[in-house]
Design a protein that fits this description.
three-stranded parallel β-sheet; globular; alpha/beta; TIM Barrel; single chain
């Protein structure tokens, strides 16, 4: 457990048994950690002084399955996570897996997970069969999240195959975390704004990892140019600052953190690791040493997350 401010990590993953079997995941040190919802996970949290993980199914969850399979396996994934949270309620919380190929069923599963299982929101793994969430068919999910007053965490997934082919065919190692994830999630989140999602659901809350996938750096320029070329009820930057929260998952950079705080305000920044793909200790050591006041460090480590997720 941590000494000092409570430490809450929000983008920390697991793999449910049936989804692992379906994908044929091979054994590896990372996969063994994804499989664990007990002693190994807690030991690594303790070593880094992390009090609470908000756990979510690993990418791509159920989002590229057929609708019937997605509904069944999302429910089973959430039930597995619920049992882990029930066994360790002081150490674990949950973000729901949603069967986005069936948006109405996804909205119902979000409600079940929040109301009956006590989950704190849901994580959406990027594209669903190549479609971004601003597509009108997904509005039931946003409507339900807004009604329940829980956030949706937009997580990266590999870009659309056409983009991968055009941009990364010669350099496939760029197609995921080094660049492709950023392009996919940045595009996804910006599309939610220009697609009118927040006009339809004005209290909707969205979390984005990796310090916004460069959004804070681009916010002024995007806002300035869109103000001339795409008329919306509010300024682009106002939508972003009102509806988005950012986490530090996999982005342990003082400069990126400073930019994010300058553009968003410290109250919109929350600690995450991206475990087990990043190491808990690396994230903790970085934020412990970052040039922040004690007050702001405590907000980022856990205060902001506790408020947003009603922990």
């Amino acid at each position: 457990m941590s000494a000092g401010p409570k430490v809450i990590a929000l983008e920390e993953h697991f793999t449910s048994p049936k989804l692992r079997a379906l994908r044929g995941e091979k054994d590896s040190p990372v996969q063994r950690r994804l499989d664990d919802l007990g002693a190994l996970r807690i030991a690594e949290m303790d070593e880094a002084g992390i009090d609470l993980q908000v756990i979510s199914e690993n990418n791509p969850a159920t989002q590229n399955l057929d609708a019937e399979s997605a509904v069944r396996l999302a429910r089973e994934s959430n039930d597995v996570l619920y049992e882990a949270v029930r066994a360790h309620p002081d150490r674990f919380a949950g973000f729901a897996t949603l069967p986005t190929p069936d948006p109405k069923a996804a909205a119902d599963e979000l409600e079940r997970a929040v109301v009956k299982l006590g989950f704190k929101g849901a994580m959406i793994m990027g594209l669903t069969h190549g479609r971004f969430m601003d597509d009108k068919q997904f509005r039931p999910i946003f409507e339900r999240a807004a009604a329940l007053d829980v956030p949706l965490y937009i997580h990266p997934t590999p870009p659309h195959p056409a983009v991968q082919d055009a941009y990364f065919k010669e350099y496939p190692y760029l197609a995921v975390a080094p660049l492709g994830f950023t392009l996919e999630t940045l595009t996804h989140t910006f599309r939610l704004i220009v697609g009118g999602v927040f006009d339809d659901y004005p209290n909707l809350k969205i979390i984005v990892g990796h310090l916004g996938e460069t959004a804070p750096f681009l916010l002024w320029r995007t806002n300035d140019i869109l103000g001339e070329r795409h008329k919306m009820p509010r300024a682009f930057a106002d939508y972003y600052r009102t509806h988005f929260w950012l986490t530090t998952s996999g982005a342990f950079s003082d400069a990126a953190l400073a930019c994010s705080i300058a553009e968003m305000g410290v109250e919109r920044i929350m600690f995450s690791v991206d475990w087990p793909f990043m190491k808990n200790r690396a994230g903790r050591d970085w934020l412990d040493a970052a040039p922040l006041s004690h007050h702001n460090r405590a907000l980022i480590f856990g205060g902001n997350a506790a408020k947003l997720l009603k922990l």
